[in-house]
Write the structure tokens for this entry.
Amino acid sequence: MVSLTGKRILLIVAGGIAAYKSLDLIRRLQDDGATVRCLLTSAGQRFVTPLSLAALSGQPVSEDLFAPGDDFGMAHIRLSRSTDVVLVAPATADLLAKMALGLADDLASTTLLAADKPVLVAPAMNAMMWAHPATRYNMALLQQRGVRVVGPAAGDLACGEVGDGRMAEVPDIVLALRTLFTAGPLAGRRALVTSGPTFEPIDPVRFIGNRSSGKQGHAIAAALAGLGATVHLVSGPVALPDPAGITVIKVETAGEMLAACQAALPVDLAVCAAAVADWRVAQPAPGKLKKGAGGPPQLALVTNPDILASLARSPLRPALLVGFAAETERVVERAQAKLAVKGCDLIIANDVSVAAGTFGADDTQVWLVSPNGVEPWPRLSKADMAARLAGLLAERLA
């Protein structure tokens, strides 16, 4: 693994008691060869001083978006361009929320919004704040955009409670930065991921679709890219941002998705996470269907192409092909049957019944189904599940 020699790091120190660790972090980063420039938020100044950060880093500390004489109010542009990575440590719930929403009302949030470099965050907060659905949603959204995360760890918190929320220890943050600059295990590999639903038109305003949000597929694409793969993401209609550093092909119908997948070949691995509609209307109406005395229209349905099976039969079949089985009952049994029929290497089975609450949620429960058997995975956030799957696929391709 490479050292940080010659790397320029912009360290954003937000307002939390864990800011005291940032002082040691500066020295350890320098020991590894990095140059550190610090940006201190107004809340961060309650915990550490600009003088302390400047003395340790040997660099002036940026604090104010409108500091007199500071590049005519363009400090956020200069700071984001003159660095190799932006490190937020500690990353508070407030600053993470600003990042997720794209708010820019101070130097830290403005610099992050303007950044064109990798961003690594080290969250630190109370355990209940970390577990809150708003924080979990924000973290999932940031990871889908390509933001890297280290920690938090579990243990005693400054508030006297115990749980997840401690900022990662300094050696772990240094290791995460070194990993960021190291070619990942999927470097040089090409990956294809499908995500979201498909919409099959009935007429110009109505369609047959499903409740897939695309969160899982997008998270898998981001995780594969994080391990160095060149990723093509073929996405149905979703309300999600495009993951950073990934080629995104947007489609609506199953036919369009199949064509986009075939155009992306050859690839080393493919993960078919999209919830593709099984049927489509044979002849969509050219105009909006109207209610009338004759009752509801009779829709003639035909079967959509099977994208997973088509990739399995292709002469350009990926070396590793993964499918998803979204079921509402007999989940594992039906996934095993699908594995036998589709010709893929792995099936990720998940329960999409109403009681499971998988569609649209930020976490999921899956079973890994292979010719060697069934492996249940614990309930994980979709980002964590994606990271685990990406690591497994990297091992299989090694």
